[in-house]
Amino acid sequence: MSLYFQATLTRVRSPVGHTPIIRTHPQRDHVHFYGALEVRTGREIALPAKEQTSLTTANFLRILLLLFPNHLLLLLDHAPWHSGPELDALFTENEDRLHVMRYPVACPELNPQEHVWSQTREHISHNHQYIHFQTLIDDFEAYLNETPFECNFMEKYAPSILHNYANSI
Q1: What's the DSSP call for residue 110?
Q2: Can you give the pLDDT at residue 44?
Q3: CA-to-CA distance for 36 and 75, rounded, in angstroms?
């Protein structure tokens, strides 16, 4: 996910006759975030990153492997930085405990991580009044890592995913 210093606008309420003022920053400063949602508990693990590359993705996945020493079922979309030689090597090295499934193309509504990004934007970056970009980044990261996110993914999809996965091995 990419976070820009420019405020994204959404609906706001204001008294009749009083136009709300949203300050915008003229620069396009930005930072990327990598995130993983533990769908059983709603716990998010997120880190800022300077770039979105397969190497950065592989490094983030190494952190997840350290945090979750057992088996991981990793659901990825088809973003360009979710594939490449660095990831192929990581998947091969950890094939006994890291299992990867891909979401269908152009189906962000199936990805619970997309809902996490959306909720965090709504609470932190829409209509923001931040003066310093680093404060926005810090608040965004804190919200991601400290908020339990509601997720019905397991109830909705786990039986079919696990059935399809079991039939593919």
Answers
A1: G
A2: 97
A3: 9
